[in-house]
């Protein structure tokens, strides 16, 4: 059965690989599964056809046969369960990998997304500077904790897993920032992941969409 995912017709990240379909593309590349991409505009995401796939009107979605999924974390988890290579076979290690997926989505990502909200949606507000300082401190706390856990290991828990896909993609929103540069082992962690051939194929595919839209 053909796997079809949805992605932005014109991504607001300007080809930086930050849109969440990148996580799904990367996971599919890691497990060697071909897939098709249906591009949708911002307007189309709020139309009935897309809302039937994702009631929240977002991307990505995942279709395979009679299965339709939304939410990038759920999709990556499904891919990791459906195809070998992204979850350990040992039950305890598998549980820890799933734990780290939840940690990335529920604990590490929210303050990082908040920082974007402060920068764009709250620009010019009287409280912006105060909010930025507060959010940045929350990010530093999480980065410090994550850095301490990672130490000099290559990946979060033993071999590379779906958890590293979610965590690295989350951290990439901070690339080039002083916040991230304070943690060299996290910078190196991201670089290792970006050097993976599957990541490079997924990034090139997503960037090609933006480049086509920009011409």
CATH architecture of the largest domain: Up-down Bundle
- Quickly count the domains: 2
Oligomer: single chain
Largest sheet strand order: 2-1-3-4
Q: Which CATH class of the largest domain applies here? A: Mainly Alpha
Concise account of the structure shown:
The chain is of the alpha+beta class and 215 residues long.
Task: Describe the protein's architecture and organization.
The chain has 215 residues and is α+β, with helices and mostly antiparallel strands. The protein has 2 domains: 3-85 and 197-214, Glutaredoxin, CATH 3.40.30; 91-194, Up-down Bundle (Glutathione S-transferase Yfyf (Class Pi), Chain A, domain 2), CATH 1.20.1050. Helix content is 56%, strand content 9%. The chain is built from 9 helices and 4 strands, in the order E-H-E-H-E-E-H-H-H-H-H-H-H. It has helices at 21-30, 48-51, 72-82, 91-120, 128-150, 162-171, 178-181, 184-194, 197-214; strands at residues 3-8, 36-40, 61-64, 67-70. It has a 4-stranded mixed β-sheet with strand order 2-1-3-4, with helices on one face. Strand 1 (3-8), helix 1 and strand 2 form a beta-alpha-beta unit. Helix 1 (21-30) packs parallel to helix 3, helix 1 packs across helix 9 (197-214) and helix 4 (91-120) packs parallel to helix 6. It is globular, with a radius of gyration of 17 Å.
């Amino acid at each position: 059965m053909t796997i079809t995912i949805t992605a932005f017709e014109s991504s607001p990240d300007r080809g930086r690989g930050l849109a969440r379909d990148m996580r799904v593309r990367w996971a599919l590349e890691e497990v060697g599964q071909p897939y098709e991409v249906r591009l949708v505009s911002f307007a189309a995401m709020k139309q009935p056809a897309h809302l039937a796939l994702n009631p929240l009107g977002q991307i990505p979605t995942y279709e395979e046969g009679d299965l339709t999924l939304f939410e990038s974390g759920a999709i990556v988890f499904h891919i990791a369960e459906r195809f070998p290579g992204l979850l350990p076979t040992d039950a305890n290690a598998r549980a820890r990998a799933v734990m780290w997926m939840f940690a990335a989505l529920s604990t590490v990502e929210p303050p990082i997304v908040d920082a974007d909200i402060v920068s764009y949606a709250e620009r010019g507000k009287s409280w912006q500077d105060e909010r930025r300082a507060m959010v940045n401190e929350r990010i530093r706390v999480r980065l410090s904790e994550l850095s301490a856990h990672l130490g000099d290991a290559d990946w979060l828990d033993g071999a590379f897993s779906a958890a590293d896909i979610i965590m690295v993609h989350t951290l990439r929103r901070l690339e080039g920032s002083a916040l991230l540069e304070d943690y060299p082992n996290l910078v190196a962690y991201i670089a290792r992941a970006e050097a993976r051939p599957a990541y490079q194929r997924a990034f090139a595919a997503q960037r090609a969409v933006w480049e086509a839209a920009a011409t």
